[in-house]
């Protein structure tokens, strides 16, 4: 059988369609696939209508786009959290070409740390507004530092000894660490989701945009994400350390010859990624108002999908990908049912890999050249 | 520099000494001693159940460990031989188990198909095939699924392959859980979700006894038979042209392809072979556990099997067997029976079974850092991991183009 399977006949699978079609699919396929869901449901809402509620026991049908707008609002704010996590994946991948599997679990530890800190500080529903604001800022900073340090520690313990090893080795170590952190979370808060005090009353509507209620939760998620992303991009673009990061990402050997401390730069990258994951953890706890040890695994995969979608190694791509994945997730949650969301997101991940593995904005890695 | 070299030198001397001793022993023994040792080991494996009571916990653990060995050998083809990191191996466990659920129970209650079955199964509703036929069906379904999973990964880099396979594994898991709401016609659904397909058929082989929960010996021999079959196929594959093609692709894809190895076909055969063995083992698990339940198919299972392959030694057949047995016993014997109450003795309020995946994760990290070549390394991989071959490769490797702009532009 071995002789038969290796005969020089052209492989049945590697059919080469016309190059032009292929190029066309490569350029537009993913964008079409991404636009398919919102357009389909938008058209459906307009033509068939959707049930907007009950009046005197009779369902009321409406034919407009506000349901879709609502999905987008949920999705974009959720996507802000994924974007923060995705940046961590993309930074680490950009610099050492490792899928840091443990990153999602660092995010989970971030949520747990934040909730634990609120308990310690006595931050509850009875706390006044200024107390909540002060407490949240303090816990945000502490959580970011904790998660950043944790990420640096993981890099130091598990990845640095494997720097010269085959690529499989650090990846497996990362998977191992992911499981270790998950079990830390399991022992910390038990195996079932725990509810969190709704400190910011995230469900309250602040204002309406043409019938779409914008709640405090959405605004909070975006209010944490946007400044952090701007701070990060300007740090990478403008500071000396940021330049060192970019140089190391491009060519670690040359960077070392130019006097850059490569190990320290890699640690810094993990620190930044971990800090953003910590911030995301805090936002997630407030936004979803419940936490559990497995959230990191799911969030990690979603965020990795986001990072790949935007083009791995590319910070802007990670943000864009996070927002898009958030919208897809919200659409799937409300239209197909949350039990299918995971499959839908992973379906998109596979579609990206097939149609456009370099992502929407193009990847920025050494192998990309 | 010289101080850092010392331990290496000492280690090398130790190894040389070991080699010398081994050569001395081999001179004393007749040339056929390895075969004789294997024969004795096999005979011992066959008579092993007679030393234990028919339904002891140890027999249970051994049967499960043998089924894990089948999975570990299967995954070893994909990850070890072909070097394609597959994090979605649980998909094949699921498909194999569902093949049993579909073709060996009353789950498809509108159908009346009976092939070579006896006893109750021969006149019940549903599809009832002989267990051997189910094994073949599971292997074929999984082989096709392996090719489908393999297709999108062909053009991808190593670590992306890991993610795509993981995504497939998760999708299969989600479909298994939600299969209750997927109707396949006539009021029948695709899976039974978390309720599980229960009342699956037991295997029927006249001659080696009745398969039930009271007597585990027939199960043991069946599992051993599957292991021996898979082992035989595995060894033959490794030494075949195809096996060498896998290793060549793993080591250097560009060189292998330029030597005329068809990359696509070779990779897809690796996926389908590994998947087929996973499916066979899954079908066995289905009938042994007498239920096919969607919550068995978690991501952690893929990592568990991967840990077997990696702890045993990537690409090494004895390693995969050792890894499967060791982790099988740890999972079904050491952790639940021996270590479980250890934390409470130290006043800690948890049980070891809760954190078993943390333990496997810890083992993975530990093995990667301390002994990346595994317990029983394959010769080529050992050279790569320990001596200078890899380092030279790394020096030769030139970053191709420098059009990249770095982390952020």
Give a structural overview.
The complex is a heterodimer of chains A (369) and B (409). With 369 residues, chain A is mainly alpha-helical. Chain A has one domain: ABC transporter involved in vitamin B12 uptake, BtuC, CATH 1.10.3470. Helices cover 69% and strands 7% of the residues of chain A. Chain A contains 13 helices and six strands. In chain A, strands 1-2 form a two-stranded antiparallel sheet. A two-stranded antiparallel sheet of chain A has the order 3-6. In chain A, β4 and β5 form a beta hairpin. In chain A, α2 crosses α12 and α11 packs across α12. Chain A is globular and about 75 Å long. Chain A starts with a helix and ends in a 14-residue tail after the last helix. With 409 residues, chain B is mainly α. The two termini of chain B are 40 Å apart. Chain B has one domain: ABC transporter involved in vitamin B12 uptake, BtuC. The N terminus and C terminus of chain B are likely disordered. In chain B, 64% of the residues lie in helices and 5% in strands. Chain B contains 16 helices and seven strands. Chain B is globular. Chains A and B meet through α1, α3, α6, α7 and α8 of A and α6, α8, α10, α11 and α14 of B.
Mean pLDDT of chain A: 86
Largest interface: A-B, 78 and 76 residues
What strand line-up does the widest sheet of chain B have? 1-3-2
Residues in β-strands, percent of chain A = 5-15%
Structural shape of chain B: globular
Secondary-structure-based class of chain B equals mainly alpha
Sketch the topology of chain A as an H/E string, one letter per element: HHEEHHHHEEEHHHHEHHH
Looking at how many chains there are and whether they match, the oligomeric state comes to heterodimer
Describe this structure in a few short sentences.
The complex is a heterodimer of chains A (369) and B (409). Chain A has 369 residues and is mainly alpha-helical. Chain A has 13 helices and six strands.
């Amino acid at each position: 059988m071995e002789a038969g399977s290796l005969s020089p006949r052209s492989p049945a699978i590697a059919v080469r369609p016309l190059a032009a079609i292929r190029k066309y699919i490569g350029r537009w396929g993913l964008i079409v696939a991404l636009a398919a869901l919102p357009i389909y449901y938008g058209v459906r809402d307009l033509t068939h209508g959707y049930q907007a509620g009950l009046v005197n026991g009779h369902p009321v049908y409406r034919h407009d786009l506000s349901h879709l707008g609502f999905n987008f609002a949920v999705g974009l704010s959720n996507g802000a959290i994924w974007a923060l996590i995705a940046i961590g994946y993309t930074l680490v991948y950009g610099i050492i070409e490792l899928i840091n599997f443990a990153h999602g679990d660092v995010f989970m530890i971030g949520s747990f740390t934040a909730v634990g800190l609120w308990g310690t500080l006595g931050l509850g529903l009875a706390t006044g507004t200024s107390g909540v604001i002060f407490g949240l800022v303090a816990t945000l900073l502490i959580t970011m530092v904790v998660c950043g340090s944790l990420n640096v520690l993981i890099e130091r313990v598990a990845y640095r000894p494997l720097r010269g090893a085959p690529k499989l080795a650090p990846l497996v170590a990362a998977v191992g660490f992911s499981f270790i952190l998950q079990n830390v979370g399991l022992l910390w808060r038990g195996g079932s989701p725990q509810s969190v005090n709704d400190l910011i009353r995230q469900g309250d509507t602040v204002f309406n945009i043409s019938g779409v209620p914008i709640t405090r939760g959405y605004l909070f998620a975006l209010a944490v994400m946007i400044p952090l992303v701007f701070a990060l991009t300007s740090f990478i673009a403008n500071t000396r350390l940021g330049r060192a990061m970019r140089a190391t990402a491009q060519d670690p050997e040359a960077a070392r010859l130019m006097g850059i401390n490569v190990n320290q730069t890699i640690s810094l990258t993990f620190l930044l990624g971990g800090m953003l994951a910590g911030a995301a953890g805090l936002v997630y706890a407030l936004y979803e108002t419940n936490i559990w040890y497995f959230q990191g695994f799911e969030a990690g995969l979603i965020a990795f999908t986001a990072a790949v979608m935007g083009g791995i190694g590319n910070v802007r791509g990670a943000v864009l990908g996070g927002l898009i994945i958030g919208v897809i997730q919200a659409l799937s949650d409300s239209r197909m049912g949350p039990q299918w969301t995971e499959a839908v997101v992973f379906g998109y991940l596979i579609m990206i890999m097939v149609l456009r593995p370099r992502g929407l904005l193009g990847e920025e890695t050494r192998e990309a050249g | 520099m010289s101080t850092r070299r010392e331990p290496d030198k000492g280690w090398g001397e130790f190894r040389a000494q070991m080699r010398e001793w081994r050569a001395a022993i081999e001179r004393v023994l007749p040339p056929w001693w390895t075969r004789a040792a294997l024969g004795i080991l096999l005979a011992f494996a066959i008579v092993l159940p007679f030393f234990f009571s028919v339904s002891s916990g140890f027999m249970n653990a051994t049967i499960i460990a043998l089924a894990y060995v089948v999975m570990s050998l299967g995954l070893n083809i994909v990850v070890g031989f072909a070097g394609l990191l597959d994090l979605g191996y649980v998909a094949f466990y699921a498909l194999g188990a569902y093949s049993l659920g579909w073709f060996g129970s009353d789950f498809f209650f509108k159908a009346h198909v009976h092939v070579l079955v006896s006893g109750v199964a021969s006149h019940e509703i549903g599809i009832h095939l002989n267990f051997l036929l189910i094994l073949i069906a599971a292997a074929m379904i999984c082989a096709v699924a392996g090719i489908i999973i393999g297709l999108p990964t062909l053009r991808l880099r190593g670590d992306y392959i890991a993610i795509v396979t993981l995504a497939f594994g998760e999708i299969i898991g989600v479909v298994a859980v939600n299969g209750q709401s997927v109707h396949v016609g006539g009021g029948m659904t695709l899976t039974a979700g978390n309720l599980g397909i229960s009342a699956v058929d037991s295997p029927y082989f006249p001659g080696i006894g009745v398969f039930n929960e009271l007597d585990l010996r027939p199960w043991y021999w069946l599992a051993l038979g599957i292991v021996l079959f898979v082992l035989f196929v595995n060894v033959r594959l490794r030494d075949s042209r195809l096996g060498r093609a896998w290793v060549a692709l793993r080591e250097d894809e560009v060189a292998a392809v330029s030597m005329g190895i068809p990359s696509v076909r070779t990779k897809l055969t690796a996926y389908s072979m590994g998947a087929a063995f996973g499916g066979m083992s899954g079908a066995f698990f289905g009938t042994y556990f007498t239920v096919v339940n969607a919550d068995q198919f978690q991501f952690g299972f893929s990592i568990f099997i991967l840990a077997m392959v990696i702890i045993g030694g990537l690409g090494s057949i004895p390693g995969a067997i050792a890894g499967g047995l060791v982790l099988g016993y740890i999972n079904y014997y050491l952790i639940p029976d021996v270590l479980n109450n250890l934390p409470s003795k130290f006043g800690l309020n948890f049980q070891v079974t809760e954190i078993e995946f943390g333990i496997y994760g810890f083992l993975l990290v530990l093995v990667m850092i301390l002994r990346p070549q595994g317990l029983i390394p394959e010769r080529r991989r050992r050279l790569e991991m320990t001596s200078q071959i890899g380092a030279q490769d790394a020096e030769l490797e030139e970053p191709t183009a420098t059009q990249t702009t770095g982390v952020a532009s």
